[in-house]
Amino acid sequence: MNEFYQINLIKDQSSYDKILNAKHQLEMIFDLHQEGLVLLNRELKIIRINKTMAGWVGQRPADVVGKTCYQGLWTLPRPCTFCPVNNIFTTGEAVHGIEETLEIDGQQTFWSISYLPVVENGRVEMVMERYRDITEEKKFFEMQIRTEKLISLGMMVAGVAHEIMNPLSGISGIANNMLNMPERYGINETGQDRIHTILDSTTRMRTILTDLLNFSGPKQYTMKKADLRQLIEKAFSIIHLKGFKDIETSIHIEDEDNITEIMCDSEKILISLDNLIHNAAYSVMEKAKQQKRENNEYQGYINVTLKKRDKKLIILVTDNGMGIFKSDMPRIFDPFFTTKSPGEGTGLGLSITNQIIIEHQGALFVNSSPVKTVFTIELPIDLSEEKNR
Question: Rounded CA gap, 351 and 92, in Å?
């Protein structure tokens, strides 16, 4: 009898060890899964969460288990609007591919979320939330759309700009002749003032057309090593807007020992930085005017941060100006789109900047809120020195 009991005990222990080992393996797979996984009960409380998901929201798994998903993950007082989980407990039907925009570590990120019912004895007892980060996919898709727009528009505007430039040269030439010989043409001082206005307008039109031709035509890039910090400092120094001196400006370098030089066309990168800082300054000064009218205290700032991430050099241009309306975000890189007052911008600055960054095999992105706007430039560190074109 004792021998029989001992044999069964050994068998039971062996089975228990196998079950325990399988449990550990499943937990390891769950935790190491590259997608975020959250298991919820009917009260929307977190039963399990893997390390990937917990890391994304800046928490430890133990700190959120037992809390509701909206409190533990998103620090919200009530369930998220349009949350499908409660409905899944009723219908038992999975929901796939819901796209959400979430702010994590101060950055706007994009997610594809699936909700999967966990059925026991014919009843949905739990729901598994699966989060997949699609931020990079979104960025790549947006870049493709922008590039196609640039190619199509570039072909169109080149011909138009050339056609307008010819009669414009004739107008400015005749106007200059009239100013040089006012007595011959019987022009008094009032007439001369009006001719000056014509010349100012033709100069502005010529500037716009030159920008168009630069935007649409083939470009020569000379790639060589350049110090990005020096380029940032130079970009700040060439801004001469009235009121710019009242803005707090700063340059922040992260891991300075690891950031030295980068292969780029320094003149083109300087143009990009100048455009971004100029836009930031304009936004901050508009915010200052608004706050002054409302008798509010306000200190505008522009900060440029330079840091290394993997094999990329990241430049962040941050300001606390007016921000960008959500409805304007899809169009800000489109040629001729501007939110500035008439006569204060051509709407080509960001388009040209975007094109320059793409030509450097980089990417340009933006996040904006009413209190802060961040333009992010990503440039490859190992861009070939031979890539002169």
Answer: 48
Each residue's pLDDT expressed in tens, for the chain with a length of 389 residues: 455 445 454 556 566 666 666 656 666 766 777 888 999 999 999 999 998 898 888 889 999 999 999 998 888 888 887 789 989 998 999 998 888 887 776 667 888 999 999 998 889 999 999 999 888 887 777 766 666 666 666 666 666 776 777 788 888 888 888 888 888 888 898 888 888 888 888 877 777 677 666 655 556 677 888 889 899 998 998 887 788 889 999 999 886 656 667 888 888 899 899 999 999 999 999 999 999 999 999 999 999 999 888 788 899 999 999 998 888 888 888 776 676 665 566 667 788 888 889 889 899 999 888 889 999 999 988 765 444 44
In order of start, what are the domains of the chain with their CATH numbers? 33-133 (3.30.450.20), 134-218 (1.10.287), 221-389 (3.30.565.10)
pTM of the model as a whole: 0.53
**How far is residue 286 from each of residues 75, 108, 242, 247, 289, measured CA to CA in Å?**
34, 25, 12, 12, 5
The Cα diameter of the chain in Å comes to 133
